[in-house]
Amino acid sequence: METQPLHDDMEQVLFSTEQIQERITALGVQIRQDYAGKEPHLVTILKGSIPFIADLMRAVDVPMTLDFLGVSSYAGTQSSGEVRLTKDLDDDIEGRHVLVVEDIIDTGLTLSYVLRNLRQRMPASVKVVTFLDKPSGRGTQIEADYVGFTIPGGFVVGYGLDWNQRYRNLPYVGILKREVYAGPF
Ligand code: 5GP
């Protein structure tokens, strides 16, 4: 199979590497202030949040611990509407200050499922930080405590976000050319 160079598939760059780093630095300061005297336990949702957590954790200058939760709900550009656990946490979260790290909140289905699941485990507190927020897609009453960028809608890729498992390694957030996911007519 012939593969196109990665960047040729982009219609537009929404957030550059520099803009992302600047925003994450500011988020880090806010989170550090809010968690002063507490040790946050960062529960990262796989796989889209990997670049975000890698940068965010280094921007939050407090003692913290880290774990990963695997969930899946998307096939291509469409939510299947059904969320399932693909990897459970390694550690117990009872009595801990959990900060859920998400890549993007769209309908809110994934996050609702994750929060319901985590709250059953009796953490001391649960907050959410999301790299991107797409409030126009929301079907549930759910908000993140910290948001990197709010976007209007559309399907974005890069900086961890995929289309059919590709484009996660783009160092920026972009919009795919329509022909890439719509296919030839
Ligand atoms: P929700 O359950 O809130 O509808 O969707 C959350 C998950 O859907 C995200 O963790 C992400 O994997 C995927 N998702 C939602 N919107 C987008 C998007 O615009 N681009 C990509 N690549 N994934 C998205």
Task: Describe the model.
- This protein has 185 residues and is an alpha/beta fold.
- The protein has one domain (18-151): Rossmann fold (3-Layer(aba) Sandwich).
- 24% of the residues lie in helices and 34% in strands.
- The chain contains four helices and nine strands; from the N terminus they run E-H-E-H-E-E-E-H-E-E-E-E-H.
- It has helices at residues 17-34, 50-59, 109-119, 178-182, and strands at residues 10-15, 40-46, 65-75, 78-87, 97-105, 125-133, 146-150, 156-157, 173-176.
- The protein has a six-stranded mixed beta sheet, sandwiched between helices.
- Helix 3 (109-119) links the parallel strand 5 and strand 6 (125-133).
- Helix 1 (17-34) crosses helix 2.
- The radius of gyration is 17 Å and the shape is globular.
- The protein starts with 9 loop residues before the first strand and ends with a helix.
- It binds guanosine-5'-monophosphate.
- Guanosine-5'-monophosphate (5GP) binds at residues 48, 73-74, 79, 102-111, 155-157, 161-163.
Short description:
The protein has 185 residues and is α/β, with parallel strands linked by helices. The protein contains four helices and nine strands; from the N terminus they run βαβαβββαββββα.
Write the layout of secondary structure elements.
Layout (H helix, E strand, L loop, with lengths): L9 E6 L1 H18 L5 E7 L3 H10 L5 E11 L2 E10 L9 E9 L3 H11 L5 E9 L12 E5 L5 E2 L15 E4 L1 H5 L3
The structure holds guanosine-5'-monophosphate (5GP).
The site of guanosine-5'-monophosphate has 20 residues, from strand 3, strand 5, helix 3 and strand 8.
